[in-house]
Write a structure and sequence with these properties.
The chain is built from four helices and 18 strands. Strands 2, 4, 5, 7, 9 and 10 form a six-stranded mixed sheet that branches. A five-stranded mixed sheet has the order 12-18-17-14-15, with no helix packed on it. Helices cover 17% and strands 39% of the residues. It starts with 20 loop residues before the first helix and ends with a helix. The protein folds into three domains: 136 residues, Sandwich (Immunoglobulin-like), CATH 2.60.40; 131 residues, Immunoglobulins (Immunoglobulin-like, Sandwich); 27 residues. With 332 residues, the chain is of the alpha+beta class.
Length: 332
C-alpha cells in the first residue's frame, strides 16, 4: 500500500464553493490509497480523520467511482452512479454518523470485497466524508455542499496490460517560430493498457551546434494516466521573469524588448523527448520537435545601435582624415 501518491487530482478533494468551516477543519489521512486486490479475497485498510475544531462534528460517507474527465487529468466523480458496479460496489464503509469530538482522531475502517469475476486491471473510486446525512440528498445523488475525500486506486490481479503510446509532442502554442522564452511543451501520453501508468522522462533541448541548452523534467510529480485515457503533461523552458506588456504600441515594444533580453535565445533548437513508463521502467517512447527563436526586437535595436556606431566611426575617420590633410598643408 502506498500512502503517498501523486495522481491525476489534488491530494485532498474539496468540492463545492461554500465550504462549511467545520469540514474545512477536518484533516484526512491519507489523501489517497493504492493497493492490489485478488478476486474473491477481502482487502482491509483505514482512513484517519482528525477534528481540528472546537465543536463536535458528525460525518457521513459516500463512495463513488471516478474517471478522468479530460486530458488535464481532472477527475469526474460519478455521483449519479452507477453504484452497483465497479470499485464503489465493492467498498464497505460505515455510512455514519461518525462522531468526532473536538480534537479527536478517528480511524474509519475500509473493507474491499472484489467478486470472484472481478475484471483484471485498474479500478478507481473515492470515499467522501460530508456533514450532509444521506436523507438530505436525492435518490442516488449526494449533495456536495462540503465534502472531503480519499482516493482509492486499486489493481485487480490477473492479466495486467501495461502499454502506452505518445499521442503528441509540441510546443504549447504549436508555433515553430517564437521570439523569446519561456517556451511551454505539451506531452500527450495515451494509456493503452488496463492499469494506470505514470510516465516520466526528460526533454533535452539542443542548439544548432548541438550544445545542450536545457534539460526539462516531464511529470516530476508522477501523475497518473488512467486506462484508455490520454493525459497531458507540461514542461517549461524559462530563464528570467516575464513582465506584462500592457499599454500602447510604443510602451509595449520596450516592455517586450526587456522580456526578450531577460529570456534571450537565438537560432534553431531541437527538443528531444524521452519518456519511460511501466513498472520495470523498460518501456520507452521518444519524439522530437524543432523550433526557431528569433528575438527580433533585440536584434532590431542591436542593429540600430551597431549602425549608429558605424556611422559615428565613419564621421570620426573622415574628420581625422581632413585634419591630417590640413596639417600636411601647413607644413608645405
Amino acid at each position: 500500500m502506498r500512502n503517498k501518491l501523486s495522481i491525476i487530482i489534488t491530494a485532498i478533494v474539496l468540492i463545492g464553493v461554500g465550504l462549511v468551516s467545520a469540514v474545512k477543519a477536518i484533516t484526512l489521512i491519507p489523501p489517497s490509497l493504492e493497493f492490489g486486490l485478488i478476486p474473491g479475497q477481502t482487502q482491509k485498510t483505514e482512513i484517519k480523520l482528525f477534528n481540528e475544531t472546537t465543536a463536535e462534528i458528525n460525518l457521513y460517507t459516500k463512495v463513488v467511482n471516478f474517471v478522468a474527465k479530460d486530458d488535464t487529468g481532472e477527475p469526474d466523480f460519478l455521483f449519479e452512479g452507477p453504484f452497483d458496479e465497479g470499485l464503489s460496489a465493492w467498498v464497505d464503509v460505515q455510512p455514519g454518523p461518525i462522531a468526532l469530538e473536538p480534537g479527536q482522531r478517528v480511524s474509519v475502517p475500509i473493507t474491499v470485497n472484489p467478486p470472484l469475476d472481478a475484471e483484471a486491471g485498474g479500478h478507481y473510486a473515492a470515499v467522501f466524508f460530508t456533514e450532509n446525512p444521506p436523507e438530505a440528498s436525492g435518490p442516488g445523488v449526494i449533495r456536495v455542499a462540503s465534502s472531503i475525500g480519499t482516493l482509492l486506486l486499486t489493481q485487480v490481479e490477473g492479466e495486467i496490460v501495461k502499454q502506452g503510446s505518445l499521442a503528441g509532442f509540441t510546443t504549447a502554442s504549436g508555433q515553430k517560430f517564437l521570439n523569446r522564452l519561456p517556451i511551454d511543451f505539451i506531452v500527450r501520453f495515451q494509456n493503452d493498457g488496463n492499469v494506470h501508468l505514470r510516465p516520466t522522462g526528460t526533454i533535452t533541448i539542443t542548439s544548432t551546434f548541438g550544445n545542450t541548452a536545457a534539460t526539462l523534467e516531464v511529470n516530476p510529480s508522477k501523475g497518473a494516466a488512467l486506462p484508455e485515457q490520454i493525459r497531458k503533461f507540461e514542461a517549461v523552458w524559462e530563464k528570467g521573469q516575464v513582465k506584462e506588456t500592457t499599454g500602447n504600441a510604443w510602451t509595449s515594444f520596450w516592455k517586450e524588448l526587456g522580456n526578450e533580453w531577460r529570456n534571450f535565445a537565438f537560432g534553431r533548437y531541437k527538443a528531444n523527448l524521452n519518456l519511460t513508463f511501466g513498472s520495470a521502467s523498460d518501456q520507452q517512447t521518444t519524439a522530437t520537435t524543432c523550433f526557431w527563436v528569433f528575438p527580433w526586437r533585440v536584434i532590431l535595436i542591436g542593429a540600430i545601435v551597431l549602425l549608429v556606431v558605424i556611422l559615428l566611426l565613419i564621421l570620426l575617420i573622415k574628420r581625422y582624415n581632413r585634419w591630417i590633410v590640413k596639417e600636411a598643408q601647413k607644413r608645405k
